Amino acid sequence: MLPRPRTDQPHYGAHLGDPGYWGPYVEVALRDSGLAVGRVEAPFVGTFPTFLVGEVVVKLFGETFDGKASYAAEAAVQNMLAGHSEIPSPALVAKGELFPEGTGWSWPYLVTERLSGQPIRVFDRSGPGLTPVADRLGEVVARLHQLDAPPVVAERDLIPGLRRSAPDRLAQVGLPPRLVEQVSDYLIDAPAPSVLVHADITDDHVFLHGGGLQAIIDWGDAIVASPYYEFVAVYLDALGGSRELLGRFLASYGLDRDGQFPVHALQALLEFQFDAVTRVKELVNLDSVRELDELAERLFGS
Known about the structure:
Number of strands: 10
Radius of gyration: 20 Å
CATH class of the largest domain: Alpha Beta
Number of helices: 13
Mean pLDDT: 95
């Protein structure tokens, strides 16, 4: 019997994308699911070990990095989306546990279909070629935000804690101290969590095929938040920081960039779980920004 994989650092990070290390575990997941075993390939390295085998993708969830909640959220959303073809996502093929018996971590896994397209990061987002994709992505995200969150996702009440920890988190990733001092007050009237969001629609998680949107992948970070929370990764990452593509996305979503949009969008960026400041610094010279309202307008204003 295979030993449980190691998750201690630096071992885990060094082996995260290593098919040689994870291959035997992937084969167990496939065999237990009644699926064919083949060559194990590594795509981009993410948080959890994820590998391509033939026509499927196998994702293994360790206990670290909130693996229990991530597995539960992704499995629940994938099950829900099976009844919503208007939101393109890889089909869930199988799920299970590598170690279903015993007292240790069971190492749950998901097997999904492998996509034929490519992530949006390999495409040029500086020109007009992706405007139809931005249009379609806006439609899909708007529809997603109309769905009820699965119970295990609705119970993931992360936003209050993210707001409390925002000043320290933002200081660590390089937001200037004068702006960090304004964060707590800026978030006092931030929109309340209200919709199901993917929460990490990055350039690795949007797939294109034949010039159009094929699917959105990786639902393990799904939470309930304000819709603006979703726009952070969409704009800064998936759409490459393109204001033109953001405008097309928002128009298709059904939201106007005027009025309070810049403020609400920046509030979401400040509470965002992952580092958005590094990308912001590529778009705006933060040394010249004195107030958060100014940053909101420069980032998100029409």
